[in-house]
Structure formats: C-alpha cells, structure tokens
Amino acid sequence: MLATPAWRVAGSSITGPSHVQTGTPCQDRHRLHVAQSGALIAIVSDGAGSAEYGGEGAALLCDRLVARLDRHLSAGVRKTGTRAGLLGLCRAVREGVHDAREAARAQGAEAGVGLESFHATLVGAVMLPRQGGLFFHIGDGAALAIGGDGERWQLSAPSNGEYADTTYFYTEPDWRTNLRFSLIDGGYDTIFVMTDGVTDLALSARPGGHEPFMPFFRPIGRYLAGATREEGEEALSATLDSGAVRERTSDDKTLVWAQVAGP
C-alpha cells in the first residue's frame, strides 16, 4: 500500500441509500496525494444534495486544492511547524479554494447557473511524517490525527450552520470567515478524514463538542496497516456500504486514511 516511502494510504466514497433510490450519483469526492517533499495531502468534499452541480463542485475543490498545495510544497517547504511554514500553508489553502471558486464560476456561466449550484464542504489535512501539519475545514465532516493506538488524538470537528441540518460551503460569499485552520502537532502517525455521512458513526458527542469513537477507528486502522491499497479500499467500501451502516445513515459516505510507513 506504499504510495511513496513516506505513507500508506486508502480511501473510498460510497453512494448513500437515499441517492441510490433516486438514481442520484455520489456527490462526495476525495483526493489523496503525497508531494515530492513527503508531505501528505488528504482532502474530502461533500457536494450539497440541494445543489445541481454539488458533485462537480466537490471535485473542483479537491483537484484545485491538491494542485495548489502540491506546487507550494514542491517549492522547497520542509518545516510545516514553523510560523512561516504554517502561514504559507494557510495562504496556499486559501488560494486553492479561490481557484476552485473561479473554476466553478466559469463552469456555472456556461451552464447558466451561479456558484450556489456548486455548493460543497471542505475537510482536509496536510502533514509531514511525524512533523505535524495543518487541518483546514469549511462546514461539517471531520479530520482526525491519531498517535499510537488512539492514546493521543487531535480532531477538527464539524461546524454546522444556524440550524441543525445546515452547514457552510466554499462557494458561499463568506467562505473566508468559515474557513477554519488548526495545527496538527508533531508525533502523530495516522490521519482519518471523512464527510458527514461518516461522522455519526465515528464521533461521540461530549459537553462542548465531539470526540472520536475509537472502537470505530481502531479496527479499521489495524486492518489497513496490513493490507495493500486495493485490499484496503475494497474493505473500506464494504464497511461503508454494509447493512448496519446503511441503517444508521442514508447519506453519501467518504473515509480516507493515511499512516506513516516504517519506523
């Protein structure tokens, strides 16, 4: 499963039962990329079900962000934990979101629709092996960094809108206000990133926020660590599309995983 000597990776996006019933394709997208510097880029996006081109908006966001971050990281960035390094990553994320908005605007002009037709969320992480990195986030979904077997963790939790069933999108005018960054400390070796179709299974509520439900993450991580990428992605797809999961949530579901390879 070695994408490069630095990381093992796997990811899957599954169409939810509600979309299967209506013949609607999966509107989740994800990208996993390892830059030449050894930095992992992991991004997931959930296209809004109410948006005509939500899936396309999610794909544009993933592609433009990976391209922008890869160029930034390939320009010689090595220390993501320094102030200058973190500011540079934040700037690259904002530029990537801007690129995606402009691409969506251009496609919308051809189709005669506005940016709201491309509404999609954003959850992402960029991280150098054991040196830490950055979570970046607009809307719901979640990202998790784990050290060891779950003894240490850092979570970028969902952020919903004013009402329970609303959230924030990168295509909204106030996207810069809703774009959240959080530092990933050094020493973590595993990353999970997911859309909101998975968070009901993977997170537990606690006073003031959320925490990871480790009985969900531990067996998945242990299996993926010993599998090929193909085996791992088949297993992820089977898990996310299992009867037990379909009974819990009818939404599209995306889960990506990455772990530092070697000692």
From TrEMBL:
Domain of life: Bacteria
SUPFAM superfamilies: PP2C-like
Gene3D superfamilies (alphabetical): PPM-type phosphatase domain (3.60.40.10)
Chain ranges of the PPM-type phosphatase domain: 15-240
One Pfam assignment: PP2C_2
Protein name: Protein phosphatase 2C domain-containing protein
Organism this protein belongs to: Stakelama tenebrarum
